Amino acid sequence: MIARLARCIALAGALAGLCCGEAAATSDAGHQRVAVFDFELIDTSLEGEAHGTRVDEQARLGRVSEQLRQRLAESGRFTVVDIAPVASEAKAQNLQSCGGCDVDLAKRIGADLAITGAVQKVSNLILNMTIFVRDASSSTTIAVMNADMRGNTDESWSRTLDWLVRNRLLAPDYGARR
User: Fold this and answer.
1) What tens digit of pLDDT does each residue of 130-149 get?
2) How far apart are CA 80 and CA 36, in angstroms?
3) Residue 116 belongs to what domain range?
4) Does 116 fall in a domain?
5) Core vs surface per residue 68-94: b (16+ CB within 10 A) or e
6) CA angle 28, 67, 13 (to 5 degrees)
7) In a domain? residue 177
8) Which of 23, 42, 105, 116 could be bridged to 120 by S-S, CB 3.0 to 4.6 A?
């Protein structure tokens, strides 16, 4: 069902672009333009409640965000749009519950897709990474993917992101479409 919805959205976008006499908001290479916003941490752990934000986890959020941008650019399927013009606005909000502000920000920088991500920390042993892909023109959620990870380390976060990119986001008939 997700695959069918994504195909309909892509076709509608292409038709809308043709009707307006312009390309359907893609880069010169014909790739979809994607705004990858920085991952957010949802810390529901006892440790987080008692001690607050950890510097190493904030650094990991930045690294997995950059890793996702790099993997998408390397795939040859997407043009990653620089989020710098809207980065401060994005950081000031919770992109997972702002009522579509991620899509609004993506549109402002000329992206076709808005990608956000969150890591939920239940404890230092139990974490979950989720990636959301939304169409910037219609605000429709195209795909949601997540994976549990064990261990709060650089390696576990990086491997989890790579697994999600390889087996969900860029996998045929799943995730973001061409």
Assistant:
1) 999 999 999 999 999 999 99
2) 7
3) 2-169
4) yes
5) bbebbeeeebbbbbebeebeeebeeee
6) 35
7) no
8) 42
